[in-house]
Write a structure and sequence with these properties.
This is Oxidoreductase molybdopterin-binding domain-containing protein. The protein has about 170 residues and is of the alpha+beta class. It has a single domain (about 5-170), classed as Sulfite Oxidase, Chain A, domain 2 (Alpha-Beta Complex), CATH 3.90.420. About 25% of the residues lie in helices and about 30% in strands. It contains four helices and ten strands. The chain has helices spanning about 5-25, 55-60, 85-90, 155-160, and strands at about 40, 55, 65-70, 80-85, 100-105, 110-115, 125-130, 130, 140-145, 165-170. The strands form two sheets. Strands 2-1-10-5-6 form a five-stranded mixed sheet. Strands 3, 4, 7, 8 and 9 form a five-stranded antiparallel sheet that branches. The N and C termini lie far apart (about 40 Å).
Length: about 170
């Protein structure tokens, strides 16, 4: 079988078409229209603004969501959190780094090994109990693990990874 340039380009296009469709549906392709609440930089292939991927709340809501019902050490009682699985977001962005640097509005920053992210946990929560989270409520974004589901999620390391008022992610080696 002879692989011509035209065949090779057609093959590459076919591989990339589903990715661009997903990214367009998720709001990564093209500029965000609302207030940017998350900027992702570093080793990502999908970008929409000055070498980064920016998200407003609607572009995050357009991505597949996961719901987690759990207690936290920072809140009273069980709460229902809704958001995008962090591993899914990184996959959609074509992430190629091994470390996720998560930073909050107040510049609190923590490094999370990408290998530690499960397909469904943690989530990048944008709702708590069906309502948007505001800054005074640890929002607009909060990295949430299903703390009640396993003792593995009840460690000081996992708690330190639970960044609230998150506004930046950077993918590094």
């Amino acid at each position: 079988m002879t692989l011509t340039l035209r065949n090779a380009l057609s093959f590459i296009f076919c591989l990339l078409l589903p990715l661009t469709t997903v990214l367009a549906a998720g709001g990564v392709k093209g500029e965000t229209t609302g207030d940017v609440i998350l900027t992702v930089s570093g080793k990502i292939s999908a970008k929409n603004a000055d070498g980064t991927a920016t998200f407003d709340i609607e572009s995050l809501r357009a991505l597949p969501a996961q719901t987690v019902s759990t207690t936290t050490i920072w809140t009273e009682g069980v709460h229902v959190f809704t958001g995008v699985p962090l591993a899914l977001l990184l996959d959609k962005l074509g992430s190629s780094g091994s470390t996720l640097r998560a930073s909050a509005i107040n510049d609190y920053t923590v490094e999370i090994p990408v290998a530690d992210l499960a397909p469904q946990a943690p989530i990048l929560a944008y709702e708590m109990d069906g309502a948007p989270m505001h800054r005074r409520d640890k929002g607009p974004l909060w990295i949430i693990y299903p703390y009640d589901s396993s003792p593995d999620y009840q460690t000081s390391i996992v708690y330190s990874h639970s960044v609230w008022q998150l506004d930046r992610l950077e993918i590094v080696d």
